[in-house]
Amino acid sequence: IDIAEYTKLVELMKGFDVVIDETTGAGPIPMNIIKAALEAGTHVINLSLGEKEDKQAAAMSDEFEKAGLSCIVGLGSSPGITNVMARDLVDRLDSVETVEMSFAYESLGTSTLPIKEPFAFAFEEFIESPLIFRDGKLERVPPRSGIQYIEFPAPIGMRAAFCIPHAEVWTIAETFKEKGIKNVSVRAGFAPDFVHKVNFLIECGLMSHDVLKVDGADVIPIDVLFKSLAQLPPEGGEVVDYGCSRVIARGMKGRGRVEYEALMLNRPYKGLTNAQHRTGHSPSIGARMLYRGEIKKRGVFPPERGVEPKLFFKELAKRELEIRVISRELM
């Protein structure tokens, strides 16, 4: 079925309790799916939306709530698991000042590809200007800025992680504004070899959206790049992937400043990449929780506003995704 055909999409969804939308990102398709779910009378879980689409979905919250339906926006890995991790940490604090989220990965397998995108839209995260929440205000910063050197668990190790455009920034800032939150950011610690290759493509102009004239034809370099990569033969080799999601929350507990750090390390899992492992299980758990009545909130909302951390983490652990929390007293 062509999911752009709205009427057929509604008919397809009818009779289902929950629909998982894995199209992700900006553009009309994810919104088409959300609207179709509402008309079909089914709960819907989305992996992520762009800034504009997130606002459009939020405007439909009353309609979903009146219909007794839930639309969970951004229940993948990041956004998704990281949002629920943030909720768990912030709930431990009396007030929160800062939430910092980051992730990294390491592949110890073999690949036959000259360059391997670790997850959808990874290339775009190098060239888009991300939003951060700093000193109580949303602020757009340059691509690949805000570098922090973060030590992730072995075998990942130290990574130069930079800010990336992710929905958690604005949803976490809005969700916890009553607790006094002032700073929110999301960073990615890409593998050094991947960073080197992508930076080379950027320096050569091959990731530009600017139109070039080539033999009289208009050409957009990044479109040519993606088209060329899509023509490569299927990847061969062994998948041995590790990944880590990390969330830090700082704030007040009683009379003292406290920092909580949550880590989720995923190890090689049944031939899946680390992104497939983390991102695939999360919405399936959400769907089961909705079906079992464990998510009671209705309307359109991000995970931190309606997914109960303890129940969610228990399900993650069954799938070899365990979360540990460390607390530190701050001066």
Can you walk through the features of this model?
The protein has 331 residues and is of the alpha/beta class. It folds into two domains: 6-73, no CATH class; 81-273 and 308-330, 2-Layer Sandwich (Dihydrodipicolinate Reductase, domain 2), CATH 3.30.360. 31% of the residues lie in helices and 28% in strands. The strands form four sheets. Strands 7-8-9-4-12-13-15 form a seven-stranded mixed sheet. Strands 1-2-3-14 form a four-stranded parallel sheet, sandwiched between helices. The chain has a two-stranded antiparallel sheet with strand order 5-6. β5 and β6 (137-140) form a beta hairpin. The longest helix has 18 residues, at 274-291. The chain is globular. The relative contact order is 0.18.
- The third-level CATH topology of the largest domain is Dihydrodipicolinate Reductase, domain 2
- Whole-number tally of structural domains: 2
For the biggest β-sheet, the strand order reads 7-8-9-4-12-13-15
CATH architecture of the largest domain: 2-Layer Sandwich
User: Would you identify the regions where 5 or more consecutive residues have pLDDT less than 50?
Assistant: none
Question: Average pLDDT value?
Answer: 94
- Which structural class should the secondary elements be placed in? alpha/beta
- Could you tell me the strand content as a percent range? 25-35%
Reading off the top of the CATH hierarchy, the class of the largest domain is best stated as Alpha Beta
Assembly state (oligomeric) = single chain
The CATH superfamily of the largest domain bears the name Dihydrodipicolinate Reductase, domain 2
What general outline do the C-alpha atoms trace? globular
In total, the number of strands is: 15
| Approximate helicity band | 25-40%
- Major beta-sheet overview: 7 strands, mixed
